[in-house]
Specification:
This protein is of the alpha/beta class and about 450 residues long. It folds into three domains: about 1-35; about 45-235 and about 415-435, Rossmann fold, CATH 3.40.50.11090; about 240-405, Glycogen Phosphorylase B (Rossmann fold, 3-Layer(aba) Sandwich), CATH 3.40.50. The protein is built from 15 helices and 18 strands. The chain has helices at about 40-50, 80-95, 110-120, 160-170, 190-200, 210-220, 225, 240, 245-250, 270-280, 320-325, 345-350, 380-395, 395-405, 410-430; strands at about 5-10, 15-20, 20-25, 55-60, 65-70, 100-105, 130-135, 150, 155-160, 175-180, 205-210, 230, 255-260, 290-295, 310-315, 330-335, 355-360, 370-375. The strands form four sheets. The chain has a seven-stranded parallel β-sheet, sandwiched between helices.
Amino acid sequence: MNKVFSIKKEQTHRVINILGIKFKIRRKQSKNDEIITYKNLKLKTQRKSNTDKLNITFTNQSSQTTLNFVTDSILPKYLLGGVGTALILASQFCIKNNMRLRIITRNNEPSRQYYEDFMNLMHENCVQDVQYYTDCRRDYLGRIKDKLELSNNELFFATSWWSAQALKNSGVNKFYYIIQEVEPFFYNYCDRHLMCSQILSDENICFIVNHKNLWNYFQHNYPNITNHGIYFNPCFPKHLYGNSVDNISKEKDKYKLFFYAREANSRNLYYTGLEILNTAIEKQILDINKWEIYFAGAELKKLELAKGYRPKFLGQLSWGDYAKFLKEIDCSFSLMYTPHPSYPPLDVVASGAVAVTNSFDYKTDCEWSENMLFGDLITEKMLEKLNEGLKLSRNLEKRIENYQSQTIPSDWGKELSNVITFMEQQVPQFLVEKGLIL
């Protein structure tokens, strides 16, 4: 007896038999059946990690030298810290050498307003000849219609290992690379960790390291960087960070504690910090009747700590608002699981308050200020150091004495002078005729 209804599966289609009539229906491929070429897989992977090549071509001849500054974004929220530092260095280099600055962004549209507002805030001169280009609209394979035509007089400046890799993928082998973190720390042992480490071992790159502590770490762990690089220390301009004795010593109902809270940035040890703060409240080390706790950072979820205390959440502040806020606080608690202190603790002591942070490798003290305290990353040890910091904050005589005697760098021009000279020495080997990059 014939079957009235039957279904037979084949490799690419189904055959449906209804009342003896066969219908062939093409089977939809599942994702597991899809085939992608290795070339496209590589392009998609590079696009995801921002290491895909820039859409550039060397076609023009020009007597004007241009420094191409490659970064993810210059949106104001990203200029608070490392990208802003890199932009100051690139600008000073261009101004001294009468070069054009071209800002190339990969994730967001750049804007002259972003650049000028930031430089004005820092009391830094803007480069007069600035061009802007972005390939943020490239597709998932890294393609974009509009190519950037470059000349034979082009220099390149990377701001991360992935922008450095993007330059190498674009055929640019010699360039400047400002490194402000142990970037392999961003990853587990994986492909990206390996690619990052390979960039740090590239002898063609001119490395510029932000902070002596980081330089010391690289000397022992990535000697190629210190063999082909130079370091500088970060600066904290007094017009932004300077505070007055009267303001520091004014009477207040409660002292203010600032917790630098970046949940999305694992190096800031957000949950370890919460545990220490919560325990400090439980043990009355942090007396919530005398202290107000402020959380600042992006995308924070409001929470309740021990004894029902709810911190004040400020979210992500603009640089101007952040500088004003720093002048109001008495103590900060900010962790950073890397060999350098990071900006927030230095921001705080530059503004007249006390900063409590963690030690790590060569990071054990601050040669510029006795108002920065370092504790081992063990809960009891950090509680002891936090207690010490809270007491020092309330000891206004000692705190002000430390503030007035500290030697934190404040002049970018002075601090970057040797770096710019070093960069100038690399220019002849970075440029060759006919737009070819060595």
